[in-house]
Amino acid sequence: MRNIAIVEDEDLAAQALIDHIKQYEAQTGQSFQIFRFANGADFLQDYRAVYAVVFLDVQMPKMNGLETALQLRRCDKNVSIIFITNLVQYALKGYEVDAVSYLIKPVSYYDFSMKFKKALDIYLLNEDRSFTVNTPGGLCRISTDKLMYVEIMNHRLFYHLIDDVIEMTGVLSGVEQQLSRFGFLRCNKCYLVNPKFIVKVKGSTVQVGDNLLQISRPRRAAFLAELANWYAGSAGGE
Q1: Helical axes 109-127 vs 11-28, angle rounded to 10°
Q2: Are 192 and 172 in contact (CB under 8 A)?
Q3: Quick check: bond before 106 cis, omega within 30?
Q4: What is the spatial distance between Cα 48 and Cα 132, in angstroms, rounded to a whole number?
Q5: To 5 degrees, how large is the angle CA 7–CA 75–CA 42?
Q6: Is 29 left (phi over 0), alpha (psi -120 to 50) or beta?
Q7: What is the rounded distance in angstroms from the CA atom of residue 216 to the CA atom of residue 223?
Q8: In this structure, are strands 51-57 and 2-7 parallel, antiparallel, or unpaired?
Q9: d(CA 19, CA 40)
Q10: Is the sign of the CA dihedral 182, 186, 192, 197 positive or negative?
């Protein structure tokens, strides 16, 4: 059973979404637990990363949907977001927070079902590739599909995502153990890199995205061998 959040201040609009979800359940045989919130502030209070899909109304009191989504992404990089709005121009801003799609009120079931399925598929695709870290602001769920590398500097860990950097205390050896099943490789004592984002290796450096990271001399042979094994396994899995 997947958890679904509806953040909508209008009772009729919220009920329409609930009815659509129940119709989708009946048609697909899936089960969902629905949680309704009247505004973004209530939704984010004591937030836990337990939702597969969040429906966010753009215009709400206290905190609008875009502001809610910005704060949500700080602690949950994996949940699928669908915006609900009366005006398309507001919804288009949602892509800045990696929203899956948007729905225009009044929401038709056909439009809902297509975009809800897409949101669920994206969440399920990322679910097996995500992990949770304990940040100063609370637990944060991260998809390894967005994590380029992890750096340790002055006893601080930095998770370098494609669209953000998360900082916390910790040790890289613990992170290495946590991320080993995702194929992350150690190129020196300061960096743990995601091979999916490696652009090239040249001499004593590895380019990860737009970043050049140093490969230590003691680690170079093992790093290149592990990277070759990863490429071989990745090619064999396609």
Answers
A1: 70
A2: yes
A3: yes
A4: 11
A5: 30
A6: left
A7: 9
A8: parallel
A9: 21
A10: negative
Amino acid at site 132: T
Could you please report the per-residue DSSP string of 213-238?
Answer: EEPPHHHHHHHHHHHHHHHHHHHHH-
Query: Tell me: the pLDDT tens digits for 48-88?
Result: 999 999 999 999 988 999 999 999 998 898 999 999 988 76
The residue type at 5: A
- Residue 7, amino acid: V
Residues 196 and 145: beta-carbon distance below 8 Å: yes
Residue 36 to residue 42: CA distance in whole angstroms: 10
Over residues 79-111, the pLDDT tens digits come to: 999 999 887 666 566 667 788 999 999 999 999
Amino acid making up residue 221: A
Question: C-alpha angle with apex 145: 187 to 90, nearest 5 degrees?
Answer: 135
